[in-house]
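Discussion board: Methods & Data

I've been asked by a reviewer to show the raw model output for two of the constructs in my manuscript, not just the figures. I'm not sure how much to include, so I'm pasting the format here to get opinions. Each protein appears as its amino acid sequence followed by a line of discrete structure tokens. Is this the kind of thing reviewers expect to see in a supplement, or should I convert it first? Here is construct A:
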Amino acid sequence: MILNVMTGRPGASIDAESAQQHYRLPPGFSVQIFANDLPKARFMRFTRSGDLLVSRPHAGDIILLQRDSDGDGYSDGRRTIISELDRPQGIDFSGDWLYIAEREQVGRIRFDHAAGITRDHYEPVITGLTGDGNHWSKTLRFGPDDMLYLAQGSTCNICEEKDPRRATIMRFAPDGSDGEIFATGLRNSVGFDWSPWDDELYATDNGRDMLGDDFPPCELNRVEYGNFYGWPYFNGANVPDNDMGPDPLATQRVPIPPAHAFRAHNAPLGISFVDTSNWPGDFEKVALVALHGSWNRSEPDGYEVVSLHFTDKGIEERVFLGGFNQDGNILGRPVDVAQGPDGAIYISDDFAGAIYRVSHSEAVDQLAIEPSQQQAPAADTIPDWVAAADLEAMSSRGEQLYLQHDCASCHEQGENPVTLEQSSYAAIERALLSPQAPMPLLPLSEQERRELAAYIASEQ
């Protein structure tokens, strides 16, 4: 699991027998694989023609999965529509423009929905964003007001940010102008959507780490313009954070408690309000949320898709798609949820490298998961630089870097330290060059990455 956290390295693909045995849904629903062999799949958006776009930050590309025209439940094919991007995550359409949130900018390109291809050239519309620290990824969506909303998380677990745009949701005109901070105090709001009955904005938020297994809760916030949602001075229902002390702006702002609390470290990511008018069972005013799952909890928790039921008495959380966690054996990690033109629910999984399709249609009456063609990652070869290196000297300098960047605070200290698994020089270098949140992106030169790799490898 730690390699998935550090590098985005996928886990084992799930076979049909295991899925039939372990995956759980409410009565009347079935699940199958829409696409597999898609490592590091993250956020999704449907085109007007019913094709599905999928972002892959660690691969630097956007994949188009062709709609299921032959009715077998699987995508009819795939192609890369744009590549060589800087860790693209959030994607959305505004008319014939496809917008992409990269690590330090937002860009857009003309998109032909009928042909499923891009046109003309890719152009930046929002630049100068920071992409350092723990939560470098960015999510974007267009709201009911046709404005571009952009979320980016904090650089750290707990700190006061130097860049006031971190740990916020921002708002821009479609051309990138008139940018403003919409709401603050949101540590890492990876997913957000608007409720269709009142156009209120709701955002998931990942609570801080290193306070034990059961605190603080992760959050769902009803986000309103100008509000402050607590981080880093408050956790959960406005519980003060002892590591920060009093809020120096307490006379200017009041923290807003969450609309709903998820269990601690469940890591809620994508959220989608869905049309349930034809669903079986008790589903009214529902949002689906992908819980990516804990990374440093002593007993893993999360790893499921939940339904949030908005009632007169509050928000009720239920398991919708479960079974990813089998007594600590993790089969998958849900990331995003999207409803297709066919009414089915599509769920991305960056661990199993799959897109699931959940349907209540009688045409899909059993779990049918196509075995993945993905092969297990080949063993890393030893990089050329190792043979000619003075590994002892490099390891000594790497130890200083390890101390300088306080790596021990996550990997050796705290209530649930994240121990480093046995890994190769090449795998450690990749993790340092392209880390998976919450591991920060460190400002290291190529030589420093090698020195740190030499030290970490020597300690295993």
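Construct B, same format:
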Amino acid sequence: MFSLNRVTVASPKLVRCISSTPALSAKADKILDAKKKAKKLTKLRRQHQQSPENHPLYMDVPKALRYLRAASVGQPSSTATISILMTLVPQRGSKPISGSIFFPNPLKSTKILVLTAKEETQAAALEAGATDVGGPELLEQIKDGKITLDHDQAFATPDMVSHLGKYARLLGSKGLMPMAKKGTVADDVVTLVKNNLGSLPFKQRENHVAVPVARCDFSDKEVLENLKAASEAIYGSQPPGTHKPNLLGQTVLNSTAGPGIVIDFRP
């Protein structure tokens, strides 16, 4: 016969075991999740190590261009863009890649912003091909919306560094914040302007690099020349001797209204 007045007290050891169960469960879930991610990453790495010719959607570039141009019929060829999308498979500890591509056949004129308070440097930068040049007053005009911040590159002289902090969010949101460690703050901004005209910056976002490489009104020769320049820049963006480089995997060529076609993008 059971007594309603009897109260059973669990042992301290049992209490500790019960109270720790959620923590153990969370730890087990975390380990399981890590194993699933590692397995998925291994599968992805194996998939992207295969030769592009083995992919069912593979075509050589000239044939791919015929399909992409056919899909762009009815659109202004001068505005229909041909782009690449490369998949990157990171290793643990690998760093995102970034850099600039110098196209032999630029898609558009490069817009360069130069920030300097030195009048002589301003004049030289404009002569070298910079689009907008100025000091603190130029930053205020950008802040007030009088100048559209749609530039491809931005450079500054050291005398402007103390002024940039106030506009860091504005410039940074467009990827145009000059920084010494990125080589975009220098005394000789004129040389930077000359060396970057016709270039297009690229940056890894998550597991991809997406870059426009041509327009549909480019000839096959011009597209191939630009693809070669893009391939050399992207494959060369990992510093020599990188201990854990990203795996540069499958590359898809597509157009504004066209399908994605796997190509051989290796240098």
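Answer (T.O., handling editor elsewhere):
This is acceptable in a supplement if you add a one-line summary per construct. For B, something like: Strands lie at 81-89, 98-102, 112-115, 132-134, 153-156, 199-203, 208-215, 247-255, 261-263.
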